[in-house]
Amino acid sequence: MILFLDSNVTIGYVFNLDRWNTNAKHVMQCPNSKYYSENVLNETKKKIRIIDKKIFSGLLFISAEILRDRSIPDNLTLDDTIHFLYKNKLRILENYINKLFSENYWFDVSKEELSIKITEAANIFKQEYITNFQFLKSTLKKHTRTKNYDILTQKLLKKVHMEDVLIVLDAHDLCHYKNPMTLITSDSIEDRNQYIVKNTHIDAIKDLRDFYMQ
Question: 213 pLDDT band (50/70/90 cuts)?
């Protein structure tokens, strides 16, 4: 049985703090042949650009702003720093800041040291996701679909969003060459998935959640 990975699997694998990271790692450890497609790759790249802007650029902004803002005390507690994130509408960075304080056993820290550590955390974050993404591309086999499947597209659109339809069509097309095949996705709407299996050559759809404790 080959596996076709939806973009929530690839994105989950790329980012270590993603909610699906543990599940995605279990998928990647499966001995089965694993495929993805150009549409999955494009969605993954798009998400990488968005998250890089929010996390990497956000951490660098906070690192510089902590030194610049004179209203910030010379020594900061975790609560001070989290308050500063909320003030700047950067709540998305809260997990990184919590992790930074816990790893360094800080109760408080100088502005200068915190700025340095946040810059280091930003660089580590970027290097980690680049490494994970490169491994993903070197490990998965990419399938390129050459047919449009216009009739099937219209049928799938009755139950499936267009972005997901493109990926389902990629998986369906691959089944002409490689089968049996299971689509792995976190989109666990049962009637939707049953509809996809009924109307395509995809043999089964497995919930990404099922890979948690394997």
Answer: low
Q: How far apart are CA 179 and CA 123, in angstroms?
A: 41
Find out whether 60 and 119 touch, Cβ atoms under 8 Å: yes
Q: Which of 213, 163, 187 is nearest to 27 (CA)?
A: 213
Distance, CA of 3 to chain centre: 18
Q: Are 37 and 204 in contact (CB under 8 A)?
A: no
| N-term to C-term CA, the chain | 17
Q: How confident is the model at residue 64 (pLDDT cuts 50, 70, 90)?
A: very high
> Tokens 């394997």 appear where?
214
As given in the structure block, the two tokens for residue 37 are: 């497609």
For 128-171, the pLDDT digits (tens) are 999 999 999 999 999 999 899 999 999 999 999 998 999 999 99
Query: Would you state the structure tokens that stand for residue 122, as one six-digit string?
Result: 């930003």
> Can you list the alpha helix ranges (DSSP code H) found in the chain?
7-14, 21-29, 38-51, 57-68, 78-87, 94-103, 111-139, 150-156, 162-174, 190-199
